[in-house]
Amino acid sequence: MRARVKILDVFSGRYSVFISEEEAKKAKLHPDDLVKVESGKKTIYGSLVISNLVGSGEIGVSKDVLQLHSLSEGEVVTVTPVGTPESVRYIKKKMHGEKLRKVEIEAIVRDIVDRKLRDIEISSFVTALEINGLDMDEIAALTVAMAETGDMLDIDRKPIMDVHSIGGVPGNKTNILVVPIVAAAGLTIPKTSSRAITSAAGTADVVEVFANVSFSLDEIKRIVEKVGACLVWGGALNLAPADDITIKSERALSVDPPGLMLASIMSKKYAMGSQYVLIDIPTGKGVKVETMEEARSLARDFIELGKRLGQYVEVAITYGGQPIGHTVGPALEAREALSALMTGKGPGSLIEKATGLAGILLEMGGVAPAGMGKKMAKEILESGKAWEKMKEIIEEQGGDPNIKPEDIPIGDKTYTFTAPTSGYVTWIDNRAITGIARAAGAPEDKGAGLELYVKVGEKVKEGDPLFTIHAESEARLDQAIVFARRTEPIRIEGMVLQRIGNI
Ligand SMILES: O=P(O)(O)OC[C@H]1O[C@H](OP(=O)(O)O)[C@H](O)[C@@H]1O
Ligand SMILES: Nc1ccnc(=O)[nH]1
């Protein structure tokens, strides 16, 4: 059918094409059918919504479509139904545990980027990968396909450093310290992050509290050429565009299948032209990698994938057995990260990890002698040079460089849990801490999250505060309290863990 475009004031989180009930009946179209919209050289795919928000002879498009394609009000287009894409067959192949060929992986990625695959099919792909995994040939093909379906950054500087955490551990604001420390030493580090996947705050969610994170590649190039670094969101760029689309399904399911994780991270590094990449693998109970053995095996995969892409990769296996620092949630983490940069001081778990990672990068980039990187990183942090660099980054990214951490608003609906008994803290449950912060509204509600007053090994007295939940609404606060009561986020020796009645 031919129709005139009507731009609807709707964000549906997907590519939606609206037609009226009458037109749908005539054309035998059904809700959620995949349709192709063509106008001149433009081809857009979307799923159908039947609605009388549009009249006959019109098609409505949600504003989501306009973020990537220019369509104007009144433009005449043709709309045709499209059958199930061929790539769905390849997804089914993976469901049955078969190995995918390079061309099949490329077709899946192309169809994800073109929006020919809808959420339901993408979630099935993610689930199939979670269950059946990918081998190194498949991972390499996926990584290159993800990078090559988007733009590539070309910065005329050498060496280009990068750091990326596989995530999973609550409170992981570490790279917000690592990037300015490394850049203050004169190295170039154009850091892209994703938003939260399994946690309550991804690095992009945290940085967004005090600076913009959505930039075009040209803007990034300008920022990095000026200050040597950036801290931006990968999803805002047309950089490995399949990544942010698959992350949406991963976030909903709270899974991050290793093969997809490798491709997600390394496709961004490849597209950014990073030559020396440090991967952080937090390891411990309740995070993505629970044992040192698994961590070493994943490390080998990252190094091998790097070799295939022509990148030099090193891996740091780090302690992920409990949250990093004392805060979880975008605004609370932003406060903690900025104050550590400003004062050079902060929780040991944050400072030691950040300077440890930065130190490795300083050695990889050839600005610190072997074995001296961490010391140099600490000096850069304590001297205030890292903070000066961070202020430059904030300013270039449109934030206020004179920001005071304590002025960052945090959720004012609060509730504090106290120790039910005296003793030593024996365990903090990462999954429960993330669950509480998410129930409180993080990462979408920036002020939501929690503040931890104790870490494993510390002694508490009955009644001492253990943690405070912050939320932006009473309803979310209540949900987080209920979640916290159902789980057992902080275990203290001597505590009655569970009472089982005689029934
Ligand atoms: O913890 P979850 O949400 O699973 O993983 C996602 C986080 O891990 C990575 O961290 P970084 O950007 O290297 O600091 C991602 O970019 C993202 O911020
Ligand atoms: N799957 C991923 C984990 C961590 N960071 C990413 O960018 N992607």
TrEMBL record:
Any one of the GO BP annotations: pyrimidine nucleobase metabolic process
Active site: D256 (proton donor)
Single GO cellular component term: cytosol
Highest taxon listed in the record's lineage: Archaea
GO molecular function, one term: 1,4-alpha-oligoglucan phosphorylase activity
Residues where AMP binds: G168, S194, R195, A196, I197, T198, S199, T203, S264, K288
Segments forming domain Pyrimidine nucleoside phosphorylase C-terminal: 424-491
Reaction catalysed by this enzyme: UMP + phosphate = alpha-D-ribose 1,5-bisphosphate + uracil; AMP + phosphate = alpha-D-ribose 1,5-bisphosphate + adenine; CMP + phosphate = cytosine + alpha-D-ribose 1,5-bisphosphate
InterPro entries: AMP_phosphorylase (IPR017713), Glycosyl_Trfase_fam3 (IPR000312), Glycosyl_Trfase_fam3_N_dom (IPR017459), Glycosyl_Trfase_fam3_N_dom_sf (IPR036320), Nuc_phospho_transferase (IPR035902), PYNP-like_C_sf (IPR036566), PYNP_C (IPR013102), Pyrmidine_PPase_CS (IPR017872)
UniProt entry keywords in alphabetical sequence: Glycosyltransferase, Transferase
EC number(s) reported in the record: 2.4.2.57
Function: Catalyzes the conversion of AMP and phosphate to adenine and ribose 1,5-bisphosphate (R15P). Exhibits phosphorylase activity toward CMP and UMP in addition to AMP. Functions in an archaeal AMP degradation pathway, together with R15P isomerase and RubisCO.
Stated family: Belongs to the thymidine/pyrimidine-nucleoside phosphorylase family. Type 2 subfamily.
Designated name of the protein: AMP phosphorylase
